[in-house]
Each structure stands twice: as structure tokens, then as C-alpha cells.
Write a structure and sequence with these properties.
The complex is a heterodimer.
Chain A lengths: L18 E12 L2 E12 L3 E5 L6 H9 L6 E6 L2 E2 L8 H5 L2 E5 L10 H11 L7 H11 L15 H14 L4 E5 L7 H16 L3 E5 L3 H7 L2 E5 L16 E4 L3
Parallel strand pairs in A: 3-8, 3-9, 6-7, 7-8
Antiparallel strand pairs in A: 1-2, 1-4, 4-5, 9-10
Chain B lengths: L2 H12 L1 H37 L3 E5 L5 H13 L3 E7 L1 H11 L4 H5 L9 E6 L5 H9 L4 E6 L6 H47 L1 H9 L4 H42 L9 H31 L7
Antiparallel strand pairs in B: 1-3, 1-4, 2-3
Helix pairs in contact in B: 1-9, 2-7, 2-9, 2-10, 7-9, 7-10, 9-10
Classes of the chains: A alpha/beta, B alpha+beta.
């Protein structure tokens, strides 16, 4: 029922132990405020990883670093063998086109229909307009929004908006999906439904990195967890050996 | 339809009053530009007409032989300050007179060729040479008298007419260019304001597009296209209104000015003139749209 294969996407189902994302001694400071300090971890292709931690611990900073929205103050961030620090402004757009992003506040275009919101991602990657309809309809069917194709965001619920956001991310067949607190504005049932959807997308081979502080979700779905703490100097030494990062392996 | 064009069109549809304001100002700009262009053309034609028509007439003595006349004609033709030398015989002078008085045939019947002197008519390349040329011709033995075109009534009046025409033409040119320049600046400011409002109003959209990998060109294209739509609609409307107005007025204008060709007499000439004006306006309008929109979109928040 749920398959991306029918869109003739290149199959990225391989579960080989290839490193897709690596952080090596990464630090990020905003002026005098240190958001991340000497963080190192690796994420393999096809993994589903939760990044947890309290507000202000640097979860979103990690996602922004992966997306190339910011550059580290120190260290190296590699995504798909690409050092994102070396990306220039010209290469950033094509790099981001390989990453799907879902946001806590959905970030859908309010004056465009559901169809147009998804199609805009296809326009960005330069897909011929003649191929939009089939692909948009297919991803909307996958996320269960095919009956809302001509609705405007104001006519949708929070869960539906988040599914529009997911459909937009999936439409471009990204290697990685970054989800920044996607359940932050949703009730438990809607969050659970979204998580099931993300889990299915992950089963199709997409690497998913999800920042969340929703412990119930983390506990229920039992994926690998990267926990980031605030750098207040009072925490126990992290198990991973890094200053502020502690990992919990998939149970 | 191109997706950027669709987006630009949706911007226009969602802010119809801004779109109307921009289109009106640009239509006015290009309407005035077209009218000024036609005025500059017509005044130039008027000036050229008076500058190039036979200005000096050397009336010849009745006993001048054909050899003497031919010799003088060659001498005049060799003078670099003189052009368009034409010999008018007594018979030709009579027929010109008859033609001019055709509405009253009795006048033509009362005269014979003998009362009209033969003449050599010519123009000077520049009016500043007129006086010296006239003085020179007066010294020729076969020349009875020298005068300017009868219709203009003599040297001083011809100089006055040309002088005034030159002044009017330069006023039309300078005033027209200044006025068009002022309107062009106004149009540019309007485009800047509207595009800037779009940029500010769509800050969230720009952020989202940035995050999903849209290039700067992708983000800016609809804004530039929108400016082009305003400008090109302004060019076409302004040009079309003035063209229709000229077509409507041209019969009266042509009749009023008689033989002075202030507008092309044939349809092809008129279309050619307006075609050139349209081409130049399309080029100028494109530059205006590009400049206005690119300055405004350069204000899009610079993010990595």
C-alpha cells in the first residue's frame, strides 16, 4: 500500500552500513552563547534517529548544520561525503534539494493550495511541469491527503498541515528527512499517526533525523537516540565520551 | 504556462490595486514618451522642410544666354555650400504660376511667359552661408536680382522662421526628454515600492523556499516577471493609445500643415515610425523593469 517505488524513484533501500552523516568535534556558538560544544556522532544510511534533549540544548542547531543553514564554528560536518563547510552559496540550493525538511510550525505557504505547496518543491528541483500532477497526487495519497488536494492551509488541521509538509519533503525523493519537533504542535493521536507515517518512509530506505523532546514518542518507537544536554557543566560525563552528547542505542 | 509566470500572475491577482497603480503610471509614462517622440519627429521634419526647400532664387536678366546660364549653374553646383540647384525657364515659371492660380483661370490667361524671368533656384547647406552666397550671386552679370522664397517674404523673415523653429524644436526636445525622464524616475520608484512590498510581504515564503533548496534565481524570478508584466503592459497600452490618437488626428494635422510632411504621408511610413518608437520603448521598458525589480529584490534577506 505504501510505496515510493511506483514513482520510479531510485531505490535507496540499501541497509549497508554506510555513513551518511558525520559530526566530528563540532562546535557552534552564536556570539558568546555556545549552542554545541565538541559534538561527534555518525548516522548511517537508512537509520531513524531521534535527537532529544531539553530546549536550548542544540537539537535544532544540529539539524540546521545538516541542512547547511549555518556553519560550525569548529569541527567538521559531512553529509553524503560532502563537507558542508566547503559548500558555497551557489551549491547550497542543489545540496538542500536532496534533503526533505519538516518543521514544528509546518512552514507551508498559506496562500497556495495543498497541491501547489507540494508542487513548489518539484518546481524548485526543476522537474518538468507535466510530471507534477502524478507525483503530487501520489505523495498526497501516501500521506492520506488526496481528498484535500485543492484545500488551502487555513482549511486544514495541524496534523493535516504536518502531512502537507511531509508530502512536500517526500515529493523530491530526498536521501534524508530532517524533522524538527514535527509533533510539537500535535496531539498524541495525530503525533502517533505522523510517526507511523515516518516509520513507513524510513522502511522505504530514507534516513530520518528527528529532533524531539516528546519522550512518549521516543519510548514508543524505540529508535536510536542521540541525547544532547545543555552545556551547564553540571551534567554527568556523557557515555559517548563527548562533552555533551549521550547516545542510546536502538532497543 | 511557466510556473514563475503563474506565481507572478497570482501576486498581481491578489493585489489588484497595486497592480493598477503600477500599470497606470507606466501607461502614462509610455503614452507621454510616444507623444513626445512624435512631436520631436514632427518638429524635426518641420525644421528640415524649411531648411532644405529652395531658399534662394537668382532671377536672371532677359538677355542671358543659355551658355551663360549653364555656366552659372555649373559654378553654383560646384560651390560646397550650395545644393539642389534647379533652372526654371520662363515657360516653367508660367506653368508654376498657372498651377498656383488654377482656382482663378483668368489670372493665368492675362499673362505670357515673357513677363516671368528665368531663374536659378537653390538651397544653402547651412543658413549661416546664406548672406555671403547671396552677395556673391548678386555680383554675377546675368543676375537681375536675388531673393528668398516668396512665401517666406525675404531674408530676415526666413532667418526668423528658421531661428524660431530651431528654438521650438530644442524646447520640445529638452522639455520632452525632461518630462519623460521625470515620469521614468516616477515609474522606477513605483516599481521599487511595489517589488519591495512583495519582498517584505513574502519574507516567510522566501525563507521556506530557501530551506527547500530554491536558488536565488528561482525566488527572484516571479518578482522580476511581475515588474516586466507591469512595464510591458504600460508600454503597449501607452503606445497603443497614442497611436490611435495620432491616427485619429492625422487627417486634420496633415491638412493643416499642407505640404509640410510633419507626419509620414503613407501608412507604411507611419507604421515604420511607430514601430521604431515601440521597439525603443520595449527596450527602455525592459531596462526599467529589470532595474526596478533587481534593486528591490536585492533587499531579500541574505541567508546561507
Amino acid at each position: 500500500m505504501f510505496s515510493l517505488d511506483t514513482l520510479n524513484y531510485p531505490k535507496i533501500m540499501s541497509q549497508e552500513e554506510t555513513i551518511l552523516i558525520s559530526f566530528k568535534d563540532v562546535a557552534k556558538a552564536y556570539g558568546s552563547v555556545v549552542a554545541l560544544n565538541d559534538v561527534s556522532f555518525e548516522i548511517k544510511k537508512g537509520e531513524f534517529v531521534f535527537i532529544t534533549g531539553p530546549s536550548g540544548a542544540g537539537k535544532t542547531t544540529i539539524l540546521k548544520l545538516i541542512l547547511g543553514e549555518i556553519v560550525p564554528s569548529k569541527g567538521e560536518v559531512r553529509v553524503d561525503n560532502l563537507n558542508i563547510v566547503n559548500l558555497n552559496d551557489k551549491n547550497i540550493p542543489s545540496y538542500r534539494q536532496k534533503i526533505g525538511v519538516i518543521f514544528q510550525d509546518f512552514k507551508v505557504l498559506p496562500d497556495r493550495t495543498v497541491f501547489e505547496n507540494v508542487a513548489v518543491a518539484l518546481a524548485v528541483i526543476g522537474l518538468p511541469e507535466s510530471e507534477w500532477e502524478d507525483r503530487v497526487k501520489h505523495v498526497l495519497k501516501l500521506v492520506g491527503l488526496n481528498s484535500h488536494i485543492n484545500s488551502f492551509p487555513s482549511q486544514l488541521s495541524g496534523g493535516e498541515l504536518q502531512r502537507v509538509s511531509l508530502a512536500r519533503a517526500l515529493a523530491v525523493n530526498p536521501k534524508i528527512i530532517l524533522a524538527d519537533e514535527p509533533t510539537g504542535n500535535l496531539d498524541w493521536d495525530t503525533s502517533d499517526a505522523l510517526m507511523k507515517l515516518l516509520e513507513k518512509v524510513n522502511e522505504e530506505g530514507k534516513t530520518i533525523i528527528m529532533a524531539t523532546h516528546n519522550i512518549e514518542i521516543v519510548n514508543k518507537y524505540k529508535k536510536r537516540v542521540i541525547h544532547v544536554d545543555r552545556d551547564d557543566g553540571e551534567k554527568d560525563k556523557p557515555e559517548s565520551g563527548d562533552d555533551r552528547i549521550k547516545e542510546t542505542k536502538e532497543k | 504556462m511557466n510556473s514563475h509566470f503563474k506565481t507572478a500572475w497570482s501576486y498581481i491577482r491578489r493585489s489588484p490595486f497595486q497592480a493598477l497603480a503600477a500599470s497606470f503610471v507606466l501607461t502614462l509614462t509610455f503614452f507621454v514618451t510616444t507623444v513626445v517622440s512624435v512631436l520631436v519627429y514632427s518638429s524635426s521634419q518641420l525644421l528640415t522642410y524649411f531648411e532644405t526647400r529652395p531658399q534662394v532664387i537668382a532671377f536672371l536678366k532677359s538677355d542671358a544666354t543659355e551658355t551663360d546660364i549653364a555656366s552659372l549653374q555649373h559654378k553654383l553646383e560646384a560651390n560646397p555650400h550650395i545644393k539642389d540647384v534647379v533652372y526654371v525657364s520662363k515657360e516653367e515659371a508660367l506653368s508654376i504660376y498657372k498651377e498656383a492660380t488654377s482656382d482663378n483661370p483668368h489670372l493665368g490667361e492675362l499673362v505670357s511667359p515673357s513677363i516671368f524671368p528665368a531663374s536659378l533656384e537653390f538651397s544653402v547647406t547651412d543658413l549661416s552661408f546664406a548672406q555671403s552666397t547671396i552677395d556673391e550671386i548678386k555680383g554675377e552679370g546675368i543676375v537681375e536680382s536675388v531673393g528668398f522664397t516668396a512665401a517666406l517674404g525675404g531674408e530676415s523673415s526666413l532667418n526668423d522662421v528658421i531661428g524660431r523653429l530651431k528654438t521650438i524644436t530644442s524646447y520640445v526636445r529638452i522639455g520632452g526628454i525632461a518630462f519623460v525622464g521625470l515620469l521614468a524616475v516616477t515609474s522606477l520608484v513605483i516599481l521599487l515600492v511595489i517589488t519591495s512590498m512583495r519582498v517584505v510581504g513574502r519574507r516567510d515564503e522566501v525563507e521556506i523556499l530557501n530551506l527547500i533548496g530554491a536558488s536565488k534565481g528561482f525566488i527572484r524570478s516571479p518578482l522580476v516577471i511581475e515588474a516586466f508584466i507591469y512595464t510591458l503592459s504600460g508600454v503597449l497600452l501607452g503606445w497603443a493609445i497614442s497611436f490611435i490618437a495620432v491616427l485619429y488626428l492625422s487627417p486634420s494635422v496633415v491638412t493643416y500643415f499642407g505640404e509640410i510632411p510633419i507626419l509620414p504621408r503613407d501608412a507604411i511610413g507611419l507604421f515604420k515610425l511607430f514601430g521604431i518608437i515601440l521597439g525603443v520603448e520595449l527596450l527602455g521598458g525592459s531596462l526599467l523593469a529589470l532595474l526596478g525589480s533587481l534593486i528591490a529584490v536585492s533587499r531579500v534577506k541574505k541567508v546561507r
